[in-house]
Amino acid sequence: MKLHNSLVFIYLFVCGSVFAAGPYTHVYLTQKWINKNRASYNEPENVAQKRACLLGGMWPDIRYILKEDNVTPVITRKQTHERGLTAENLRACQDACELGKKIHCFIDEKREEFARKEGIRDLLFKKNQKLPQKMSDRYLKFLEDEVLFDMQGQWDDFLWTENFMADGEIVLGLTERDVRVWHEKLRLVFANRPSKLLSLVKGKTYFGISPTMLEVWYELMPDFSGDQEIQSYVKRMLIHLEQLF
Predict the structure, then answer these.
(1) What is the DSSP track for 134-188?
(2) Are 53 and 46 contacting, i.e. CB atoms less than 8 angstroms apart?
(3) What is the pLDDT of residues 186-215, one digit of tens each?
(4) How many CB atoms lie under 10 A from the CB of residue 220?
(5) Are the beta carbons of 26 and 57 closer than 8 angstroms?
(6) Is the separation of the CB atoms in 64 and 48 below 8 Å?
(7) What is the CB-side half-sphere exposure of residue 198 using CA atoms within 13 A?
(8) How big, in percent rounded to 5, are the helix, strand and coil portions of the chain?
(9) Is 75 helix (H, G, I), strand (E, B) or coil?
């Protein structure tokens, strides 16, 4: 049950915000940014910088980790999510972990703009009215990552080896304990496809989402993730964001 709760916790919380891409999308696009703008990070001798950048690319969502009292968030969104960043801001950043954080914020903001412009929320409701429009923003992150999971194939687990932590993760009052907990949750997420998480929570209520609605999400996933129009949307979204880099 502890494993199940960890997996569900990170996805339903990280995907709870309208302005948040899913973890697979963040890692995929951060790597694309590296390939285009900082290819030196891909060299074997620079593996520490690459890890720091990719971990930085997920770090802003550490705000969903709780302190040891299991009540208080370790940090707030206002502290972790910078708004209004430009591609020039990203390219000017020289610290690998800070760069990853900026890429994360840039992706969240630009992805949301694209989703609204494309009308994907209305499209999902049109395809199946079982999914209320007010829930589509949260569900969309699962769906995007499910499609990307199948596009990408096997995900590299090198981030979680050697218990690596970037100095830029232990800031703003965060402790090594907070970062270790965060990394463990991320490791578990990247070991499973998003739809598996939904299969683990049947009959339960998580973060205001009823058991009935979670069941609907799970039932819709195969048809939605296999739908060519939705797959096309995800591919266009990824291409659009890469072009902004």
Answers:
(1) HHHHHHHHHHHHHHHHHHH-SPP-GGGGGG---GGGS-TT--HHHHHHHHHHHHH
(2) no
(3) 887 888 888 887 777 666 666 567 888 888
(4) 21
(5) yes
(6) no
(7) 24
(8) 70, 0, 25
(9) coil
Amino acid at 142: F
Structure tokens at 204: 């339960």
User: Which amino acid is located at 43 in the chain?
Assistant: E
Tell me the whole-structure pTM to 2 decimals. Answer: 0.89
Contact assessment for residue 15 and residue 62, using Cβ atoms and an 8 Å cutoff: no
Q: Give the pLDDT of the chain (245 residues) as one tens digit per residue.
A: 444 555 555 565 555 555 578 889 999 999 999 999 999 999 999 999 999 999 999 998 887 676 777 667 777 778 888 999 999 999 999 999 999 999 999 999 999 999 999 999 889 988 988 887 777 777 898 899 999 999 987 676 667 666 789 999 999 888 898 898 888 888 878 888 888 877 776 666 665 678 888 888 889 999 999 999 999 999 999 999 999 99
In angstroms, how far is the first alpha carbon of the chain from the final one? Answer: 40
Residues written for the chain: 245
Amino acid at 27: V
What six digits make up the tokens of 231? Answer: 């797959």
Instruction: State the DSSP string of 7-64.
Output: HHHHHHHHTTSTT---HHHHHHHHHHHHHHH-GGGGSGGGHHHHHHHHHHTTGGGGGG
CA angle, residues 132, 200, 153, in degrees to nearest 5? 90
